[in-house]
Design brief:
2 domains, Alpha-D-Glucose-1,6-Bisphosphate, Chain A, domain 4, 15 helices, alpha/beta, 20 strands, 7-stranded parallel β-sheet, 465 residues, Rossmann fold
Length: 465
């Protein structure tokens, strides 16, 4: 039997840390993004007898894991025991111990045994323990960071959030992030997405212009993320029309409905994109910079203009111009990982183009920050403080993965494969600065590229050397 123990001290009471773990969304927040984990079913939470069944994807294979919760001591800890899964035995005790006034020592104490001992343990036991360590280092960083953030924003009382696009990567993550903190989250849905029992939803049909203002009334914060994916397919005329209309029609409908709601929200946070600035070479850009040229710039301008009915109704509106979101769970980084892990990655085109990026965790924090900052309205760039040239990005990713990253992808090949989309998403240069975020006091968890990639990929600084 092997034993693994990981501990850290958190600036929160044991009772508060326990409550965070017991809420919906906490498990999803703790699941590392490099592991493909999906909850198949859940009964209850972390109380005695509650069950959680998971699916873990390992390469082309999937493994099911059924865990039973027991020995629950509210405010002090709980245990989960593997009933069925990839280990011969697995018992995990989560302990929340007082560590001084307002402090908690969080301890994850695991006893486990591999199937096929002793030979399997001899050959892969060390690798398994290293993987477990990476997971729990990540979990403790998330727990500490999330609790500190929620202490800073809306700590006095839970808020009511309405999220459109809540079945997408950012929307799903935001809903989990807010729910674990105790906020009341309602998902604005077309009715085609399936959510777990007990999840609050409101219905709309933006393609038909249907949204009852009463269904969106009484919310404190509305976060609008809905829109067809810009990288979901080659930009044919039909796809470009869907991308534009999904953003403009949806935003206009939501803005008009909020303006006519009996109780409008305090703030509407609308997603936009750094594509607003177009291809601007080495020019430094901030929120005062004008729009560029190209399809994404045109879309972003129309997208932001569509929120005008809410502004005219006196609702504070923030246009969050989002850069490349770093997470292996989706987006650009997910697509880049297979060739880079195979040692076949490298710069795109000249590699001199600037990529303005932000980690998913910092983006979620930025949403909370602009929602709470009553003096912020209009455009706000959601990017890290220092954008990276594509060549630097490629070298850093290769170093973190401990793989060569010297195979340049010629610009003509990108244009041949992706057409206009390749030019605007991969080859365009936007050196964007988060001036308004920084000046309003936003604190980044991951402002440096190497540390950001190590965090989202579960690598230590020593592993990346």
């Amino acid at each position: 039997m092997r034993r693994f123990l990981y501990q850290s001290t958190i600036s929160a009471s044991p009772e508060r840390v326990w409550e965070w773990h017991a809420r919906p969304g906490a498990f999803e927040r703790l699941a590392p993004p490099w592991d493909r984990v999906r909850i198949l079913s859940r009964t209850g939470s972390i109380l005695d007898g509650d069950l959680t069944e998971l699916e873990l994807r390992v390469g082309p294979f999937s493994v099911r894991w059924l865990a039973e919760h027991l020995d629950c001591e509210p405010g002090r800890g709980f245990t989960d025991r593997m009933v069925r899964g990839p280990f011969a035995e697995w018992t995990h005790r989560h302990a929340f111990e007082p560590a001084g006034e307002g402090m908690c020592r969080l301890a994850d104490d695991i006893e486990y045994r591999l199937k096929g001992e002793p030979w399997v343990d001899f050959f892969v036991g060390g690798a398994v323990e290293n993987r477990i360590r990476r997971v729990f280092e990540y979990r403790h960083r998330i727990t500490t960071g999330d609790l500190e953030l929620h202490d800073r924003y809306f700590a006095d009382r839970p808020m009511k959030f309405l999220i459109s696009g809540s079945s997408g990567l950012i929307g799903t993550s935001l809903a989990d992030f807010l729910s674990a903190a105790g906020h009341d989250v309602c998902r604005l849905t077309r009715g085609t997405s399936r959510f777990p029992e007990g999840v609050s939803t409101a219905h709309w049909a933006p393609e038909r212009g249907e949204l009852d203002p009463r269904a969106v009334s009484g919310q404190d914060v509305v976060v609008h993320l809905a829109g067809a994916g810009i990288a979901d397919g080659r930009w044919t005329p039909g796809q470009k029309r869907r991308i534009l209309e999904s953003r403009v029609k949806g935003t206009d409908l939501l803005a008009r409905s909020l303006a006519g709601a009996p109780t409008p929200p305090r703030v509407l946070v609308c997603a936009s994109a750094t594509g607003f600035y177009g291809d601007r070479g080495d020019l430094e850009l901030d929120e005062g910079s004008g729009p560029g040229h190209g399809f994404l710039s045109d879309v972003s301008r129309a997208w932001e203009d569509a929120a005008r009915p809410a502004i005219e109704a006196g609702i504070r509106v923030v246009h969050l111009r989002i850069g490349i979101v770093l997470t292996p769970a989706g987006g650009a980084l997910q697509r880049m990982l297979p060739p880079f892990r195979a040692g076949l990655g490298g710069p795109m085109g000249t590699g001199r183009q600037y990529w303005s990026w932000i980690t998913l965790d910092d983006l979620l924090a930025a949403v909370l920050h602009v929602a709470a900052s009553e003096d912020l309205s209009g455009p706000v760039n959601a990017v890290a403080p220092r954008p990276s040239r594509n060549a630097e990005f490629s070298r850093t990713l290769g170093r973190v993965l401990r793989r060569p990253a010297a195979l340049r992808v010629p610009a003509p090949a990108i244009r041949l494969l992706l057409g206009e989309m390749g030019d605007e998403l991969l080859l365009a240069s936007a050196r964007v600065r988060p001036t308004r975020l920084v000046e309003s006091g936003f604190d980044y968890r991951h402002g440096e590229l190497g540390a950001a990639l190590r965090h989202v990929l579960g690598r230590t600084a020593e592993e990346a050397e």
